[in-house]
Amino acid sequence: MASRRALAKPAAAAQLISTASARPTTPSFLARNGIRYTSSSTSALAYKAMHRRSPLKLPVSDNAPQWDAPAAVSSILYETPLPSTNPPKRHILNCLVQNEPGVLSRVSGILAARGFNIDSLVVCNTEVADLSRMTIVLRGLDGVVEQARRQLDDLVPVWAVLDYTEAPLVQRELLLAKVSTLGPEAFEELLQHHREMTSDDAAGAENGKNGTAIEDTHFHPRNIPASQALRHKHEHLDAITRLTHQFGGKIRQTIPY
């Protein structure tokens, strides 16, 4: 009788453990049972561990083939894929991440380490607490982008990474404009400087009329000599400088092309 009771205790304990492990741990279940749900940085990792997206296991061969050196090299050369001739395609990735600091830098760091140039990156909160959505637009080959997507999916604060490349989407562009709200009184000094510059130009034009008239010659840029072309270039730069002075600006740097 004592032995039967001893055997019944481990069975009951095993049943309790299996029942406890079978209970769902979703926030709705916890709320219905009066249990407070606490979010942490490893919530996404626990979710991915419980919800595997690829339940099928890879085939494993029990008997490893015996290769010699010539056969192994021939197999490697034969199975090596050729470089892809397809041009890089535009991909749209949607990442569901934990709303915490540092996630954006980790995601962008992985893409930068793989040599991706991010065309667009938008991050925003969702209506769900502790959950943010990242929309990433980049260009690359399908296989390389898929490898990057799987690497992003393995991050701890990332819940899931979806590929919306072939899905119908509604896309919009954002424009950031910087507008000044200063009134006309802020430009009084600028207008005064403009009046002084225009009065000096008018006086110089009047003196030019009284002096010797300069003969106007029609020329083509390809027909003028190099010395005259340099002089005209200097005059163009001087005209740009005068134009910036009329608006109170200063040329900080010029880069020739």
TrEMBL record:
Tagged with keyword Amino-acid biosynthesis: yes
GO molecular function: acetolactate synthase regulator activity
SUPFAM superfamilies documented for this protein: ACT-like (SSF55021)
Annotated Pfam families: ACT_AHAS_ss (PF22629)
GO CC list: acetolactate synthase complex; mitochondrial nucleoid
GO-annotated biological processes: isoleucine biosynthetic process; L-valine biosynthetic process
Domain spans labelled ACT: 92-166
InterPro entries (UniProt xref): Acetalactate_synth_ssu, ACT-like_dom_sf, ACT_dom, AHAS_ACT, AHAS_small-like_ACT, ALS_regulatory_subunit
Pathway: Amino-acid biosynthesis; L-isoleucine biosynthesis; L-isoleucine from 2-oxobutanoate: step 1/4; Amino-acid biosynthesis; L-valine biosynthesis; L-valine from pyruvate: step 1/4
Entry keyword set: Amino-acid biosynthesis, Branched-chain amino acid biosynthesis
Family listed: Belongs to the acetolactate synthase small subunit family.
UniProt protein name: Acetolactate synthase small subunit, mitochondrial
